[in-house]
Amino acid sequence: MKDAFGTPQSLLVLGGTSEIALATARRLVARRTRTVWLAGRPSPALEKAASGLRDLGADVRTVAFDALDPESHEENLGKIFTEGDIDMVLLAFGVLGDQARDEDEPLSAARVAQTNYTGAVSAGLVCARALQSQGHGSLVVLSSVAGERARRSNFIYGSSKAGLDAFAQGLGDALYGTGVHVMVVRPGFVRTKMTAGLEEAPMATTPEAVAEAIETGLRRRSETVWVPGVLRVVMSALRHVPRPVFRRLPL
Amino acid sequence: MPADSPALPPSEAASAAEAVSVSGWGRTAPTTARLVRPRTPEEAAAAVRDCGERGGIARGLGRAYGDAAQNAGGAVFDMTGLDRVRAIDADAGTVVCDSGVSLHRLMEVLLPLGWFVPVTPGTRYVTVGGAIGADIHGKNHHVSGSFSRHVLAMDLLTADGTVHTVTPGTPLFDATAGGMGLTGVILSATVRLQPVETSLMSVDTERATDLDDLMARLTATDHRYRYSVAWIDLLARGTAMGRSVLTRGDHAPLDALPARARARRAPLAFRPGQLPAAPSFVPDGLLGKATVGLFNELWYRKAPRCRTGELQKISTFFHPLDGVPHWNRVYGRSGFVQYQFVVGYGKEEALRRVVRRISERGCPSFLAVLKRFGEGDPGWLSFPMPGWTLALDIPANLPGLGAFLDELDEEVAAADGRVYLAKDSRLRPEMLAAMYPRLDDFRALRAGLDPRGVFRSDLSRRLAL
Fold first, then answer.
1. Quick one: A9 exposed, middle or buried, by C-beta within 10 A (0-12, 13-18, 19+)?
2. What average pLDDT does this structure show over A76-86?
3. Where are the domains of chain A?
4. Nearest C-alpha of chain B: how many angstroms from A14?
5. pTM of the prediction?
6. Distance of residue A204 Cα from the nearest chain B Cα, in angstroms
7. Same domain, B385 and B342
8. Contacts of A212 in chain B (CB under 8 A)
9. Which domain, by its residues, includes B129?
10. Could you report the per-residue pLDDT of B135-192, keeping only the tens digit for each?
């Protein structure tokens, strides 16, 4: 069960090698979390992530999960919930893609959309139903500021996150009153291996900062969390910039 | 029911279960459960039988601060439908009543007959079942012990659907008193009462300038009073750390009432007053350091340096907060946590350290209460033990509060003390065994009595009780 501050005792990470997810897991393990499930494609990286959390004292198990294979979600994720309550699900998988290449190769663009959006819809619904029958739990969805308004420089990734964000908001409304709390997290540019080599955007942040914001959001039972918080203001201004101006902005 | 009725809406019949969001009085960590409201012992047995694989837990008036009477995804038995006072023996001073009867109702019924409940906590709106399940204590613990000390017998509905009459001195009694509802559903109880001549209290008030002054005064004179409690200003720092107001007294005898006073004509009248309810929406952070600091300053200054024999109503002396229905709302949406611990006599240094840490950190708590416990009680998970107990409440949205309270737990456990489960919403499970040495006995009894784990709550899941 979560405690009075929303800190979970058991955590399921979808996208078990995500740096943001692992920073969050480390933070939560330092508090209350004792059981962690890392779901992802079986790989040495996943095992390494698991042993890193084990070193912190958590009981960690890994489970095969592929965002691109929605047909397996019901079975693979469902069985986790039969072993005990999951207090928090962190939906953290996603790919950035390569905008220039993806524009040339529609198939690889579609894979970005399938991973970030379609996979999340399927996995999110499977987990949401399980949480609902538990009568409690938090579903934390890692969205992105990129989904707030599509930009020329990464609209394929951005549009997939926009879809995910809208899905998570709607799911949160659907689950309101069921004891399940859905929280959408919108980080700005996060310094991770996913963004390595990219030119850093203003107000860049770190996985640790996102993890801290998630913990605060759980305590406050927030529905939307921006990281850093000032992006809420920045984005609400940018949202209203006329398109002819917006497309010329150096973003 | 009084205006301050439970937050849960009543349903028409026991079978009409509805999914509702349930939280404790602190309003943190709500979860959803099916609410069943049995009106007879038979309906209660049916509810237990049909509660499903996520089990069920009895709930009274929802005054436990944490998650003791919640059961996510399962059933919650709202026991307030079993609300009959069955028999009063006005000569011997005992009452037989359903578990859903509130202490408020008992006072209404018993006071005119010259009897009072043996133990009352800071609210009258707890049920008899809840009083046993949490093994509540009051300002008279140093004299009278906890509530279950005055229970002569109770009927307990266990997981197999049978009803047992449980009497003191048996393992089942000791597991149930303070057992947080996890041994079964208490259906009714026989309680021994306290005789009184009037419904007024004779109260002595004095101020203590700091924590050491307070502890010295309590140690020297507590035995002279049936009821004793001290309010501490936990925001006061430096030399004023621990400054406090002591309020102590006893039931006023008839000859203490002034001649020709109105109270003389009806010395046993019970008339608690009521103020308007707290509004349903209060912004978070209203009770910050500034507001609570100001309140504490005024509260301390307004208390008389020393006053004896003041006559107060029962509601004023015991239950000041009951006058404001839904007062828990003033903490806003995030709610609040209550932290109550006890450390034994001889561990005063631990108490001082905890008070110093709270005061240095500036926790905005305006309800901090210190009292001395007497003899421990037989319940395996009963909270009281001989020593000092401090209770405080803190807004849950205070950053870093979780880690801070974990550190206080360490201090308390290192001093062989414990925290109170009826108020808990955040204890780490691994701390429990150190705080409650009879935990293994409790678990073993439950494993035998309820192998399928029919009785379950969010508290029991969180702490693996």
1. buried
2. 96
3. 10-247
4. 23
5. 0.93
6. 24
7. yes
8. none
9. 82-196
10. 999 999 999 999 999 999 999 999 999 999 999 999 999 999 999 999 999 999 999 9
Taking a C-beta distance cutoff of 8 angstroms, is the pair B81, B102 a contact? no
Q: Does A161 touch chain B (CB under 8 A)?
A: no
Side chain identity at residue B22, one-letter code: V
Give the helix/strand (H/E) hosting B390: strand B387-395
Predicted confidence band of residue B16 (pLDDT cuts 50, 70, 90): low
User: Where does the pLDDT of residue A227 fall: very low under 50, low under 70, confident under 90, or very high at 90 and above?
Assistant: very high
Q: Are strands B163-166 and B151-157 parallel, antiparallel or unpaired?
A: antiparallel
* Residue B226 within any structural domain of the chain: yes
Domain covering A10-247, topology: Rossmann fold (3.40.50)
Collect all residues of chain B within an 8 Å Cβ-Cβ radius of residue A222: none
Quickly list H helices, B145-242. 171-176, 211-221
Number of folded domains in chain B?
2
Nearest by CB to residue A135, choosing from B32, B284, B425, is B32
> Quick one: how far is CA B227 from the chain centroid?
16
Q: Annotated catalytic sites of A, by residue?
A: 157
- The predicted pLDDT at position A139 comes to 98
Cis peptide preceding A228, ω within 30 of 0: yes
Mutate to test the interface with A, among B35, B333, B334 (most CBs of A within 10 A): B334
Chain B residues with CB under 8 Å of a chain A CB are 19, 21, 26, 28-33, 54, 66-67, 71-74, 284, 333-335, 337, 396-397, 399, 401-403, 425-426, 428-429, 458-459, 461-462
pLDDT, chain A, mean: 96
Report the gap between the CA of B286 and the closest CA in chain A (Å): 15
Q: Which of A104-113, B247-256, B358-367 has the lowest mean pLDDT?
A: B358-367
CATH code for the domain of B396: 3.40.462
**What ipTM was estimated for this complex?**
0.92
Q: Are residues B145 and B240 in the same domain?
A: no
User: B106 and B141 in one domain?
Assistant: yes
Asked if residue B231 has pLDDT above 70, the reply is: yes
B425: nearest CA partner in chain A: A4
SS3 content of chain B, % helix, strand, coil (to 5): 30, 25, 45
- Which residue, of B428, B444, B459, is where some domain finishes? B428
